[in-house]
User: Fold this.
Amino acid sequence: MELVSLAGGEGDSAVKDRGEAACLVGILSFVHVLVGVDRTAAITGLTLPQEIKQALSKFEGDLGRILRLAVCLDRGEFAEVAEVAAELSIDAKTVWGYQREAYDWVMQMG
Assistant:
């Protein structure tokens, strides 16, 4: 999610902030699984910017579309991946490149 949100804006502080928000959305997108409730209930009571709440609960806004892209990739829903990527003006080759970079990063962590 962070890679998608940072595309083309290296060095821009607003883009960096957006990348950090995308990273936070990605992390928080699994909270509902950990606590065993639906997405909306999992973030109830958290003090979050509205854009992040909307992304997490309803897949709304740019962060919501990026989250939907990540969820669809994870589930292997490639027709929807293509649809969401088109909404974000990202081609399939770029999506795959971001996916590979993310896997590489995870592998370096262990």
Remarks:
- The chain has a mean pLDDT of 91.
- Residues 2-109 form one domain.
- The chain has one domain: 2-109.
